[in-house]
Specification:
163 residues; Alpha-Beta Plaits; single chain; 5 strands; five-stranded mixed sheet; 58% helix; alpha+beta
């Protein structure tokens, strides 16, 4: 199974046709992922690589863009292996800032939903603890009743024996 990485590219990489070129490189190398401008001025790529060699080749081609186009200036490329696999459509697809805003909105909605679920789970936990406490008290009461009944039984036996 391929591994998903996040690549952060620093430098003069926004508004210079950089993402379009990355799409072409990705398509040529058969790499699937997404590319987008980030608010801090970086270009970010989430992509799947079958092996380390494919990832390094992709990065080399990205670095070569700087030599081919004087508008592009790459300071550094950071990479981070993600602990999950994301299935992307074929090729590298560009996301617009509107797409990113929509994804962030959906992510925020998802986080709110998860928080609601956790709040409900906490309520269920409280109810279960109350039920457990009631069960413990019921067992204690039954134990006490059993003890009293045994005392009555023993007392009745003593009275019967005396008669």
């Amino acid at each position: 199974m391929p591994t998903t990485y996040e690549l952060k590219i620093y430098g003069k990489v926004q508004h210079v046709g950089f993402r379009d070129r990355i799409e072409n490189i990705g398509k040529g190398l058969g790499i699937n992922g997404i590319i987008y401008n980030y608010k801090d001025g970086t270009v970010r790529i989430l992509a799947n690589f079958d092996d380390e060699e494919d990832k390094e080749l992709f990065k080399k081609y990205i670095e070569r863009l700087e030599k081919k186009d004087k508008l592009i200036e790459i300071e550094k490329i950071e990479e981070k292996r993600l602990n999950t696999y994301i299935e992307f459509p074929e090729g590298i697809s560009r996301l617009s800032s509107d797409d990113i805003l929509e994804l962030n909105k959906k992510l925020d909605e998802g986080v709110k939903y998860i928080k609601l679920i956790f709040a409900e789970l906490e309520e269920h936990k409280k109810v279960l603890l109350e039920i457990k406490d009631m069960h413990v008290k019921t067992v204690e009461i039954l134990s006490e009743h059993t003890r009293i009944l045994n005392e009555i039984k023993d007392t009745l036996k003593d009275i019967k024996d005396k008669l």
